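Reader question, answered in our methods column.
A reader sent in the components of a multi-part assembly and asked whether the whole thing could be modeled at once rather than chain by chain. We filled in our standard form and ran it. Here is what they sent:
COMPLEX SIZE: two components
ENTRIES:
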Amino acid sequence: MATTTAAFTLSSSDIAPSPVSKSTTATLTKAGTTTGLEQCDGMSRRILLTSETSIMDLISAQAAGATGGAYTVDKANKVYICNSSTSDVDFVLITMYGEPIGRLYAGDWMFFPWGPGHATNSDIRITAASQTSSVIIDYMIIGQRNEA
Amino acid sequence: MPTTTATITLSSPDIDAFPLDVTSTTTLYNAGLDTGVEHTTGMNRKIIKADDTGPVQLISTIIGGVFMVKGASFSSGNAVVTQSADTTVTRKVGQAIIGTNIADSTTILSVDSSTQFTMDKNSTGAVSSGEGSVAIAYNKYTANKANKIYICNSSTDDSDYVVVTINAEDIGRLYAGDWMLMPWSAATSLSNIFITAATQTSTAIVDYMVIGEGDS
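And here is the structure of the entire assembly that came back:
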Protein backbone atom coordinates (compact mmCIF):
# COMPACT_ATOMS: atom_id res chain seq x y z
CA MET A 1 0.00 0.00 0.00
CA ALA A 2 1.43 3.32 -1.05
CA THR A 3 1.41 6.38 1.15
CA THR A 4 0.72 9.64 -0.66
CA THR A 5 0.05 12.99 0.91
CA ALA A 6 -1.26 16.24 -0.50
CA ALA A 7 -0.34 19.27 1.56
CA PHE A 8 -1.87 22.69 1.09
CA THR A 9 -0.72 25.99 2.50
CA LEU A 10 -2.47 29.31 2.04
CA SER A 11 -0.72 32.35 3.34
CA SER A 12 -1.26 36.09 3.30
CA SER A 13 -0.15 38.76 5.70
CA ASP A 14 -2.45 41.46 4.41
CA ILE A 15 -5.59 40.19 2.62
CA ALA A 16 -7.62 40.39 5.81
CA PRO A 17 -7.41 42.30 9.12
CA SER A 18 -5.66 39.29 10.57
CA PRO A 19 -3.03 37.29 8.70
CA VAL A 20 -4.34 34.28 6.81
CA SER A 21 -2.42 31.09 7.37
CA LYS A 22 -4.05 27.79 6.59
CA SER A 23 -2.36 24.44 6.23
CA THR A 24 -4.00 21.12 5.51
CA THR A 25 -2.53 17.74 4.73
CA ALA A 26 -4.58 14.89 3.32
CA THR A 27 -3.42 11.32 3.02
CA LEU A 28 -4.85 10.09 -0.25
CA THR A 29 -6.83 6.92 0.32
CA LYS A 30 -9.18 4.73 -1.66
CA ALA A 31 -12.86 5.50 -1.46
CA GLY A 32 -14.25 4.92 2.00
CA THR A 33 -11.16 3.19 3.33
CA THR A 34 -7.82 3.86 4.97
CA THR A 35 -5.96 2.08 2.18
CA GLY A 36 -3.63 4.33 0.25
CA LEU A 37 -4.10 5.07 -3.43
CA GLU A 38 -1.85 2.97 -5.60
CA GLN A 39 -2.11 4.33 -9.12
CA CYS A 40 -0.47 7.38 -10.57
CA ASP A 41 -0.34 8.52 -14.17
CA GLY A 42 2.79 10.54 -13.59
CA MET A 43 3.18 14.16 -14.51
CA SER A 44 2.16 14.90 -18.08
CA ARG A 45 2.74 18.07 -20.06
CA ARG A 46 0.71 19.50 -22.87
CA ILE A 47 1.81 22.50 -24.92
CA LEU A 48 -0.84 24.45 -26.78
CA LEU A 49 0.24 26.60 -29.65
CA THR A 50 -1.31 30.02 -30.01
CA SER A 51 -3.27 28.66 -32.95
CA GLU A 52 -4.89 25.97 -30.78
CA THR A 53 -7.82 27.98 -29.50
CA SER A 54 -10.57 25.40 -29.54
CA ILE A 55 -11.71 23.21 -26.68
CA MET A 56 -9.75 19.97 -26.30
CA ASP A 57 -9.56 16.95 -24.06
CA LEU A 58 -6.97 16.95 -21.32
CA ILE A 59 -8.06 13.91 -19.32
CA SER A 60 -10.47 11.29 -20.57
CA ALA A 61 -12.82 9.36 -18.32
CA GLN A 62 -12.43 6.41 -20.66
CA ALA A 63 -8.66 6.33 -20.72
CA ALA A 64 -8.71 2.55 -20.22
CA GLY A 65 -10.32 1.99 -23.56
CA ALA A 66 -13.58 0.71 -24.94
CA THR A 67 -14.22 -1.71 -22.11
CA GLY A 68 -15.49 1.07 -19.89
CA GLY A 69 -14.52 4.19 -18.06
CA ALA A 70 -11.18 4.06 -16.38
CA TYR A 71 -12.36 6.58 -13.83
CA THR A 72 -15.74 6.19 -12.21
CA VAL A 73 -17.89 8.25 -9.93
CA ASP A 74 -17.65 5.91 -6.96
CA LYS A 75 -13.85 5.89 -6.70
CA ALA A 76 -11.33 8.28 -5.22
CA ASN A 77 -9.36 10.00 -7.95
CA LYS A 78 -7.51 13.28 -7.59
CA VAL A 79 -6.53 15.59 -10.41
CA TYR A 80 -3.72 18.11 -10.35
CA ILE A 81 -3.51 20.68 -13.15
CA CYS A 82 -1.06 23.55 -13.35
CA ASN A 83 -0.80 26.30 -15.95
CA SER A 84 2.96 26.56 -16.18
CA SER A 85 2.88 29.43 -18.63
CA THR A 86 4.36 32.78 -17.73
CA SER A 87 2.20 35.39 -19.47
CA ASP A 88 -0.06 37.08 -16.91
CA VAL A 89 -2.85 37.71 -19.38
CA ASP A 90 -3.13 34.15 -20.67
CA PHE A 91 -5.44 31.59 -19.15
CA VAL A 92 -7.02 28.26 -19.88
CA LEU A 93 -10.64 27.57 -19.08
CA ILE A 94 -11.26 24.22 -17.40
CA THR A 95 -14.58 22.55 -18.20
CA MET A 96 -16.29 19.32 -17.26
CA TYR A 97 -19.36 18.02 -19.06
CA GLY A 98 -19.76 21.41 -20.66
CA GLU A 99 -19.78 23.17 -17.32
CA PRO A 100 -17.15 25.88 -16.95
CA ILE A 101 -15.22 25.28 -13.75
CA GLY A 102 -12.78 28.15 -13.79
CA ARG A 103 -9.88 29.91 -15.40
CA LEU A 104 -6.32 28.88 -14.62
CA TYR A 105 -4.04 31.84 -15.16
CA ALA A 106 -0.29 31.55 -15.59
CA GLY A 107 1.21 29.93 -12.54
CA ASP A 108 -2.15 28.85 -11.12
CA TRP A 109 -2.77 25.26 -10.11
CA MET A 110 -5.81 23.31 -9.04
CA PHE A 111 -6.28 20.06 -7.14
CA PHE A 112 -9.66 18.42 -6.87
CA PRO A 113 -11.47 15.10 -6.58
CA TRP A 114 -12.78 13.79 -9.86
CA GLY A 115 -15.78 11.52 -10.03
CA PRO A 116 -16.86 11.21 -13.62
CA GLY A 117 -20.62 10.98 -13.39
CA HIS A 118 -21.03 10.56 -17.13
CA ALA A 119 -18.95 7.74 -18.57
CA THR A 120 -18.24 9.41 -21.86
CA ASN A 121 -18.81 13.07 -21.19
CA SER A 122 -17.08 13.84 -17.92
CA ASP A 123 -13.75 14.37 -19.61
CA ILE A 124 -11.75 17.29 -18.37
CA ARG A 125 -11.28 19.77 -21.17
CA ILE A 126 -9.26 22.91 -21.54
CA THR A 127 -9.68 25.91 -23.78
CA ALA A 128 -6.96 28.48 -24.36
CA ALA A 129 -9.09 30.78 -26.45
CA SER A 130 -7.15 34.00 -26.26
CA GLN A 131 -3.59 33.17 -25.37
CA THR A 132 -0.84 35.42 -26.66
CA SER A 133 1.86 32.77 -26.45
CA SER A 134 2.14 29.01 -26.16
CA VAL A 135 0.44 27.57 -23.10
CA ILE A 136 2.09 24.89 -21.01
CA ILE A 137 -0.20 22.66 -18.98
CA ASP A 138 1.15 20.12 -16.51
CA TYR A 139 -1.28 17.57 -15.12
CA MET A 140 -1.42 14.36 -13.18
CA ILE A 141 -3.98 11.90 -11.80
CA ILE A 142 -3.54 9.99 -8.58
CA GLY A 143 -6.29 7.54 -7.83
CA GLN A 144 -7.74 4.10 -8.04
CA ARG A 145 -9.39 4.19 -11.46
CA ASN A 146 -12.15 1.59 -11.45
CA GLU A 147 -10.26 -1.05 -9.52
CA ALA A 148 -12.23 -3.15 -7.07
CA MET B 1 -1.90 45.29 -2.66
CA PRO B 2 -2.15 42.07 -0.66
CA THR B 3 0.15 39.18 -1.37
CA THR B 4 -1.46 35.77 -1.04
CA THR B 5 0.20 32.51 -1.94
CA ALA B 6 -1.14 28.98 -2.29
CA THR B 7 1.23 26.05 -2.19
CA ILE B 8 0.62 22.39 -2.89
CA THR B 9 3.02 19.57 -2.14
CA LEU B 10 2.28 16.09 -3.43
CA SER B 11 4.62 13.48 -2.12
CA SER B 12 4.87 9.73 -1.99
CA PRO B 13 7.88 7.48 -1.56
CA ASP B 14 6.20 4.46 -3.09
CA ILE B 15 3.27 5.17 -5.43
CA ASP B 16 5.50 5.04 -8.46
CA ALA B 17 8.81 3.56 -9.50
CA PHE B 18 10.38 6.82 -8.42
CA PRO B 19 9.39 8.93 -5.42
CA LEU B 20 6.70 11.48 -6.15
CA ASP B 21 7.62 14.97 -5.05
CA VAL B 22 5.71 17.86 -6.62
CA THR B 23 5.59 21.33 -5.15
CA SER B 24 3.91 24.30 -6.76
CA THR B 25 3.35 27.77 -5.35
CA THR B 26 1.14 30.35 -6.97
CA THR B 27 0.60 33.95 -6.03
CA LEU B 28 -3.09 34.77 -6.33
CA TYR B 29 -3.55 37.64 -8.75
CA ASN B 30 -6.50 39.46 -10.23
CA ALA B 31 -7.45 38.20 -13.68
CA GLY B 32 -4.77 38.90 -16.25
CA LEU B 33 -2.77 41.14 -13.95
CA ASP B 34 0.05 40.97 -11.45
CA THR B 35 -1.91 42.72 -8.72
CA GLY B 36 -2.90 40.56 -5.80
CA VAL B 37 -6.48 39.54 -5.09
CA GLU B 38 -8.09 41.56 -2.32
CA HIS B 39 -11.26 39.74 -1.29
CA THR B 40 -11.76 36.81 1.02
CA THR B 41 -14.77 35.37 2.75
CA GLY B 42 -12.58 34.06 5.52
CA MET B 43 -12.85 30.44 6.56
CA ASN B 44 -16.43 29.22 6.94
CA ARG B 45 -17.71 26.00 8.39
CA LYS B 46 -20.90 24.15 7.56
CA ILE B 47 -22.06 21.23 9.66
CA ILE B 48 -24.37 18.77 7.97
CA LYS B 49 -26.36 16.49 10.17
CA ALA B 50 -26.67 12.83 9.28
CA ASP B 51 -30.27 13.32 8.17
CA ASP B 52 -29.41 16.26 5.88
CA THR B 53 -29.00 14.15 2.78
CA GLY B 54 -30.10 16.61 0.09
CA PRO B 55 -27.97 19.18 -1.75
CA VAL B 56 -26.83 22.06 0.44
CA GLN B 57 -25.71 25.33 -1.11
CA LEU B 58 -22.20 26.09 0.01
CA ILE B 59 -21.21 29.10 -2.08
CA SER B 60 -23.51 31.36 -4.08
CA THR B 61 -22.67 33.60 -7.02
CA ILE B 62 -25.03 36.19 -5.56
CA ILE B 63 -23.66 35.98 -2.08
CA GLY B 64 -23.57 39.76 -2.03
CA GLY B 65 -27.34 39.90 -1.69
CA VAL B 66 -29.91 41.98 -3.55
CA PHE B 67 -30.75 45.61 -4.23
CA MET B 68 -34.36 46.69 -4.43
CA VAL B 69 -35.36 48.47 -7.64
CA LYS B 70 -37.08 51.69 -6.63
CA GLY B 71 -40.40 52.43 -8.29
CA ALA B 72 -40.17 49.43 -10.62
CA SER B 73 -43.07 48.94 -13.01
CA PHE B 74 -43.78 46.91 -16.11
CA SER B 75 -46.75 45.60 -18.03
CA SER B 76 -47.72 41.98 -18.33
CA GLY B 77 -45.79 40.01 -20.92
CA ASN B 78 -43.25 42.79 -21.34
CA ALA B 79 -39.53 42.79 -20.66
CA VAL B 80 -39.01 46.54 -20.27
CA VAL B 81 -38.78 47.77 -16.69
CA THR B 82 -39.07 51.43 -15.79
CA GLN B 83 -37.90 52.67 -12.43
CA SER B 84 -36.96 55.71 -10.41
CA ALA B 85 -33.41 56.86 -10.98
CA ASP B 86 -31.15 55.47 -8.24
CA THR B 87 -27.45 56.21 -8.24
CA THR B 88 -26.82 53.86 -5.34
CA VAL B 89 -27.46 50.74 -7.40
CA THR B 90 -25.16 49.58 -10.20
CA ARG B 91 -27.03 47.65 -12.88
CA LYS B 92 -25.11 45.32 -15.16
CA VAL B 93 -26.05 43.07 -18.04
CA GLY B 94 -26.38 39.50 -16.79
CA GLN B 95 -27.42 40.32 -13.25
CA ALA B 96 -30.31 38.20 -12.01
CA ILE B 97 -33.70 39.85 -11.49
CA ILE B 98 -36.08 38.46 -8.93
CA GLY B 99 -39.43 39.54 -7.60
CA THR B 100 -43.14 39.83 -8.25
CA ASN B 101 -44.21 38.50 -11.66
CA ILE B 102 -40.60 37.88 -12.69
CA ALA B 103 -39.95 34.55 -14.42
CA ASP B 104 -37.34 32.21 -12.96
CA SER B 105 -33.74 32.72 -14.11
CA THR B 106 -34.44 36.18 -15.52
CA THR B 107 -31.45 38.46 -16.02
CA ILE B 108 -30.79 41.97 -17.28
CA LEU B 109 -30.52 41.98 -21.09
CA SER B 110 -29.66 45.66 -21.44
CA VAL B 111 -29.38 48.78 -19.35
CA ASP B 112 -31.22 51.37 -21.41
CA SER B 113 -31.11 54.50 -19.26
CA SER B 114 -31.02 55.66 -15.66
CA THR B 115 -34.73 54.87 -15.45
CA GLN B 116 -35.08 51.84 -17.67
CA PHE B 117 -33.61 48.39 -18.27
CA THR B 118 -34.74 45.37 -20.26
CA MET B 119 -34.99 41.82 -19.01
CA ASP B 120 -34.16 38.74 -21.08
CA LYS B 121 -37.59 37.27 -20.34
CA ASN B 122 -41.03 38.80 -20.42
CA SER B 123 -42.83 39.37 -17.15
CA THR B 124 -45.52 36.94 -16.09
CA GLY B 125 -47.82 39.77 -14.99
CA ALA B 126 -47.94 43.49 -14.50
CA VAL B 127 -46.41 45.48 -11.66
CA SER B 128 -47.25 49.12 -11.02
CA SER B 129 -44.84 51.56 -9.46
CA GLY B 130 -44.92 51.21 -5.74
CA GLU B 131 -46.49 47.78 -5.88
CA GLY B 132 -44.82 44.40 -5.69
CA SER B 133 -41.13 43.86 -5.09
CA VAL B 134 -38.45 43.76 -7.75
CA ALA B 135 -34.78 43.31 -6.93
CA ILE B 136 -31.43 43.01 -8.66
CA ALA B 137 -29.23 40.23 -7.35
CA TYR B 138 -25.75 41.51 -6.70
CA ASN B 139 -23.35 39.17 -8.43
CA LYS B 140 -20.38 39.08 -6.17
CA TYR B 141 -18.56 36.59 -8.34
CA THR B 142 -18.51 36.86 -12.11
CA ALA B 143 -17.12 34.80 -14.94
CA ASN B 144 -14.26 36.98 -16.01
CA LYS B 145 -12.61 37.30 -12.63
CA ALA B 146 -10.03 35.27 -10.74
CA ASN B 147 -11.63 33.55 -7.77
CA LYS B 148 -10.38 30.47 -5.96
CA ILE B 149 -12.42 28.03 -3.93
CA TYR B 150 -11.01 26.02 -1.06
CA ILE B 151 -13.15 23.23 0.39
CA CYS B 152 -12.10 20.70 3.00
CA ASN B 153 -14.10 17.81 4.39
CA SER B 154 -13.00 18.02 8.01
CA SER B 155 -14.99 14.97 9.03
CA THR B 156 -13.21 11.94 10.43
CA ASP B 157 -15.26 8.95 9.33
CA ASP B 158 -13.39 7.27 6.46
CA SER B 159 -16.52 6.00 4.76
CA ASP B 160 -18.27 9.36 4.62
CA TYR B 161 -17.99 11.80 1.75
CA VAL B 162 -19.61 14.86 0.27
CA VAL B 163 -20.22 15.28 -3.44
CA VAL B 164 -19.23 18.71 -4.74
CA THR B 165 -21.29 20.06 -7.63
CA ILE B 166 -21.33 23.21 -9.73
CA ASN B 167 -24.57 24.06 -11.48
CA ALA B 168 -25.74 20.49 -10.79
CA GLU B 169 -22.66 18.99 -12.45
CA ASP B 170 -20.75 16.61 -10.19
CA ILE B 171 -17.10 17.46 -9.73
CA GLY B 172 -16.14 14.68 -7.36
CA ARG B 173 -16.31 13.23 -3.89
CA LEU B 174 -14.42 14.72 -0.98
CA TYR B 175 -13.79 12.01 1.57
CA ALA B 176 -12.97 12.70 5.21
CA GLY B 177 -9.78 14.74 5.39
CA ASP B 178 -9.73 15.52 1.67
CA TRP B 179 -9.40 19.09 0.43
CA MET B 180 -9.62 20.80 -2.93
CA LEU B 181 -8.58 24.11 -4.42
CA MET B 182 -9.94 25.18 -7.77
CA PRO B 183 -10.59 28.31 -9.77
CA TRP B 184 -14.25 29.26 -9.98
CA SER B 185 -15.65 30.91 -13.04
CA ALA B 186 -19.11 31.57 -11.66
CA ALA B 187 -20.05 31.48 -15.32
CA THR B 188 -23.73 32.18 -14.69
CA SER B 189 -25.95 33.06 -11.78
CA LEU B 190 -26.68 29.32 -11.60
CA SER B 191 -23.04 28.36 -11.04
CA ASN B 192 -23.53 27.95 -7.33
CA ILE B 193 -21.50 25.36 -5.50
CA PHE B 194 -23.45 22.69 -3.65
CA ILE B 195 -22.42 19.77 -1.52
CA THR B 196 -24.41 16.63 -0.93
CA ALA B 197 -23.74 14.25 1.91
CA ALA B 198 -26.16 11.61 0.77
CA THR B 199 -24.92 8.60 2.69
CA GLN B 200 -22.97 9.90 5.65
CA THR B 201 -23.16 7.92 8.83
CA SER B 202 -22.28 10.80 11.11
CA THR B 203 -22.28 14.59 11.05
CA ALA B 204 -20.23 16.01 8.21
CA ILE B 205 -18.03 19.06 8.78
CA VAL B 206 -17.09 21.10 5.72
CA ASP B 207 -14.75 24.09 5.86
CA TYR B 208 -14.64 26.44 2.88
CA MET B 209 -13.30 29.77 1.75
CA VAL B 210 -13.38 31.99 -1.33
CA ILE B 211 -10.37 34.11 -2.18
CA GLY B 212 -10.44 36.33 -5.21
CA GLU B 213 -11.51 39.59 -6.67
CA GLY B 214 -15.28 39.23 -6.63
CA ASP B 215 -16.67 41.39 -9.40
CA SER B 216 -14.49 44.34 -8.50
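What stands out: Chain B has no helices and 17 strands. The radius of gyration of chain B is 21 Å.
Send us your own complexes using the same form.
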